[in-house]
User: Fold Response regulator transcription factor from Streptomyces koyangensis.
Amino acid sequence: MARVLVVEDDAQLARALRINLEVRSYEVAAARDGDGALRLFAAGEPDAVLLDLGLPDTDGVELIKAIRSRSRAPILVLSARHLSGEKVRALDAGADDYVTKPFSMDELLARLRAATRRRRATARAEALTVVTTAHFTIDLAAKKLLREGHPVRLTPTEWHLLEILAASPGRRVSQRTLLLEVWGPAYAENTNYLRVYMAQLRRKLEADPSRPRYLITEPGLGYRFEP
Assistant:
């Protein structure tokens, strides 16, 4: 169950947020000011924060900075301030999204789901910094590859391709996704690029490139890395 911290001094809106979140199986903690928000945050880090900028005891932007200094939980600002300068200040301080009041509850919840999905994906990628197999080790953070203890040199394109696949072990990555991520929109249909570079990677990594163990082709669909 995801935990959401709601920081909102409008009691009616705070109640509406709590009801809508809890009916969707979120656990909700609520504060009406900055001090209360920081106390709740210290008691248990939430998975996301919904934060009003117009708080009675502190500037909402300063609260964003305080939260961001100790956590990477998504922060969605809820504010009646429509000026672009206010939005820029909040986003530069560390907010992930800015929703102006009045807003659609369905839209807000969709933005919350998207923000928490992005954070989970980032957390998975950060946790998976080193991928070890029986024949080679990929250090994603250091951008190093060792095969049987010896460094293997990859071109920037080869590394980018391997990095994307290794970050999602056991999951198929579509041809189009790989082409867009590595080469860009102009090459989205050039599947021959993938065949050439996958062959190069297999020659550097696989014991038998003709019978790959780690870099698996799913014909017509994409590729999969099996550690």
Observations:
- Helices lie at 11-22, 34-43, 60-68, 84-93, 105-127, 156-166, 175-182, 191-205.
- The mean pLDDT is 90.
